[in-house]
Design goal:
single chain, 245 residues, alpha/beta, two-stranded antiparallel ribbon, 8 helices, globular
Length: 245
């Protein structure tokens, strides 16, 4: 049953992706918020399909941050980007530059105003990322970053990169850590299997600005990893009760 429902969702996801990406092409010639609106429609339709076709819902815990914050989230699968883009209205997401080269998808995220970073650019890339983040902050947007730089499986050891500390120091704003357990339910080769249940996205206690780099990184990792371990265990218990492990 899980495979059948996952396949139905995949077909639905492919269909809405084609329809939205082609049907909303005029948004690319309009002001930035038109692309933001198109992207939010795509995210909303995707999450609807997950709930009603694959039986995979989600829950948001904690206080949703106001605009103008630094958001640092655990990252396990595509779901994280979709959900955070809906829950946080119009964040400036830090993404790897290669994503801009994907036809249609790359066009929309570029127009929507992401912060694209060259992961091989070292110091110059970090300076560019910080400058674009300050511009986003000045316009009232939050900045969303995945501190480990890539997706991680639920059991992978943490590997936090220095970019988040650079943004924290440059922006002089509170940082809201985010934990989640999406990787427990979004599994299989290329994430094709969607197990029924409820993903939890949890906003944790904000870290105040002004801490030393090493202190900030230690607190950030401890909060995210502790909460993520708890949520992953909770998700696996739910799957075990449902016999979907």
């Amino acid at each position: 049953m899980v495979l059948i429902r996952s396949t139905l969702f995949f077909l639905y996801f492919a269909l809405i992706t084609v329809v939205i990406f082609i049907g909303c092409l005029p948004a690319l010639a309009m002001e930035r918020h038109a692309a933001v609106h198109a992207s939010r429609i795509w995210s909303r339709l995707t999450l609807w399909g997950l709930k009603y076709l694959a039986g995979l819902d989600y829950e948001v815990r904690g206080k949703i941050p106001a605009d103008g914050m630094l958001i640092a989230s655990k990252h396990m699968c595509l779901w994280d980007s979709l959900a955070l883009y809906l829950v946080l209205y119009d964040p400036a997401a830090v993404l790897k530059r290669e994503l801009l080269n994907i036809p249609f998808y790359g066009w929309y995220i570029r127009k929507a105003g992401v912060i694209a970073i060259d992961r091989g650019g070292h110091a110059s890339a970090l300076r560019k990322m910080a400058a674009e983040a300050r511009t986003a902050f000045a316009s009232g947007r939050s900045v969303l970053i995945f501190p480990e730089g890539t997706r991680k499986s639920p059991d992978a050891p943490p590997d936090y990169k220095p970019g988040v500390a650079g943004l924290y120091g440059q922006l002089d704003a509170p940082c809201v850590p985010v934990a989640l357990n999406s990787g427990v339910f979004w599994t299989g080769w290329m994430g094709l299997i969607k197990k029924p249940g409820k993903i939890v996205l949890e906003f944790l206690e904000p870290i105040p600005p002004g801490l030393k780099r090493q202190d900030f990184m230690a607190i950030l990792q401890e909060r995210i990893e502790t909460a993520t371990t708890r949520l992953v265990a909770e998700g696996r218990q739910l799957l075990a009760r449902e016999g979907a492990l």
